[in-house]
Amino acid sequence: MPRQAVIFDMDGVLVDSYHAHYEAWKRLGQEHGLTMTEQQFAATFGRTSADIIDALWPGQADAADIPAWDDHKEAVYREILRERFPAMDGAAELLQALARADFALAIGSSGPPENVQLVLECLPGAESIAASVTGRDVTRGKPDPQVFLIAAQRLSVEPQYCAVVEDAPAGVQAARRAGMTAIALTGTADRATLAADAHIVVDRLCELTPETISQAILARAG
């Protein structure tokens, strides 16, 4: 049987970074006389920073300035996160169980590599993650499947034998477009919203096991 893989989104799946990201965005906006509501933030969670700036603050930053805005926001985010690293409940245990079951593991995130590195350093069980794809590795953000297809390629696992764990609707859509099993974790979005595209919806990572993930992959892979 071909080896199977699980690709994890990072924010809201492995690390409970929702409030840290929201605070960082608010601080960036305040510095430029702009605002972001939590409703606006939640609707864009999981997209690249450049996409968010263009969508919420169109015309406020020249194209040449967006990378600097992005870098500053992410630096503020990492400062907030380092103060108290908020691992998602059950993340370490699931990573360790999947590694013991010989799953290939990867992170597929729209965040910058510095953010991914911080999680790899701080999250127990992250030593079993063999590959990562960041926002700098892609040219198209979620819901485009590029991030997950690159992750599968780096793991040398065919897309149909991959599952993706995501918390954002755009990420769930990206997983499906990649031809992968889409597992949605509630929190950032509600169950009804996620169920529109996900193959499996769970409220907690502890609901997932290597066996249930493998069964879901094989049911779709035929």
TrEMBL record:
This is Beta-phosphoglucomutase. PANTHER family: FRUCTOSE-1-PHOSPHATE PHOSPHATASE (PTHR43481), GLYCEROL-1-PHOSPHATE PHOSPHOHYDROLASE 1-RELATED (PTHR43481:SF4). One of its GO terms (molecular function) is sugar-phosphatase activity. It holds the Pfam family Hydrolase.
